[in-house]
Amino acid sequence: MTRAGGDPMRVVVVGASTGLGRCLGIDFAKRGHQVALLARREKLVVEAAAEAGSGAFPVVCDVTDEASCRQAVEESLRTLGGIDAVVYSAGIGILQPIAELDAQTWARAFATNVIGASVFTAAALPALRESHGTVAYFSSVSASVGAPWPGLASYTVTKAALDKLVAAWRAEHRDVGFTQVTVGDCAGGEGIGTSQLTADWDPQLAAEYYPLWTARALMSDCLMDVEDFVPVIESVLRCGASAAIPTITVTPRPLVADAPSPAGLQPA
Fold first, then answer.
1. d(CA 241, CA 133)
2. SS3 17
3. By the 8 A CB rule, do 21 and 90 touch?
4. Beta bridge pairs of residue 35
5. pLDDT at site 263
6. How does residue 257 score in pLDDT terms, banded at 50, 70 and 90?
7. For the residues of 209-251, what is the DSSP string, one character each?
8. Which of 137, 155, 209, 210 is catalytic?
9. E strand or H helix that includes residue 148
10. Which residues contact 268 (CB under 8 A, 6 or more apart)?
11. Is 137 a catalytic residue?
């Protein structure tokens, strides 16, 4: 199946309640695609669908619950009539020294950032095989191309595991496109559309790590506009049955030499 430049797609966005996932889902709907917006918090996805307009539909999904993933895929199929593409943007970033990460914290990070990605993919696989569709998973430069951020071991390690997971799916199911999207610094949109990665961080602990992140040049000196990010993902999802984009890295570039530093504390 070829999804030409002007043809609408049936897209499922996982993690559409806040941040990049919300921005993508709303923008895709406004571009004429049929979009199922999935997230655990019903109120937020209902609000996102209302903002997106008639082409968007809210679906409750907890990616750490296998039954919830299956039910969300079934509801998306009923609503959309098929699935051409999935965007997996769900993810959590826990700020804590690595020596203090207990088994429960590690399990929580893997449950959302890795296991949930695979369980949801398995649930959507029959529909994706039928459409020769594409799945895009949001990874991180801190896991793929850069050094780990001190204090964010669980985030970096699980995103690195996600990268290998994408390759494993690609190795076993060549009739579906699996794309690892390595994302650089992007704050998302406005309001709840802003990245919520840092929302649960301890401000005092973040302040302690900030000088170390700066000294090691881990923080970018500029942010990517979400309006420039969305069409890149749309192009990835439009690949037809005879083409694929295994990996893609999207990072900000400074428009001026003295571009201001990003306001948020967030690893790409």
1. 7
2. coil
3. yes
4. 11, 56
5. 45
6. low
7. HHHHHHHTT-S-SS---HHHHHHHHHHHHT--TT----EEEE-
8. 155
9. none
10. 140, 141, 142, 146, 183, 184, 185, 186, 220, 251
11. no
What's at 112, amino acid-wise?
T
Given a contact cutoff of 8 angstroms between Cβ atoms, the answer to whether 117 and 163 are in contact is no
| E strand or H helix that includes residue 190 | none
Among 32-36, 178-182, 186-190, the least confident range:
186-190
pLDDT band at 4 (very low <50, low <70, confident <90, very high): low
Long-range contacts for 76-83 (Cβ within 8 Å, ≥24 apart)? 76/12, 76/36, 76/38, 77/127, 79/34, 79/36, 80/10, 80/12, 80/34, 80/36, 81/10, 81/34, 82/10, 82/127, 82/130, 82/131, 83/10, 83/11, 83/12, 83/124, 83/127, 83/128, 83/131, 83/133
Distance, in Å, from the CA atom of 5 to the CA atom of 190, rounded to the nearest integer, reads 28
The runs of H, that is alpha helices, within the chain are 19-30, 42-52, 66-80, 103-110, 116-131, 141-144, 153-172, 203-215, 226-237
- Among residues 188, 185, 181, 177, which one has the least CA distance to residue 162? 181
Give, for 86, the enclosing helix (H) or strand (E): strand 85-88
Tell me which DSSP letter residue 44 carries.
H
Lookup: tokens for 42: 């019903």
Whole-prediction pTM value?
0.91
Helix (H, G, I), strand (E, B) or coil at 202: coil
> Among residues 236, 209, 216, which one has the least CA distance to residue 139?
236
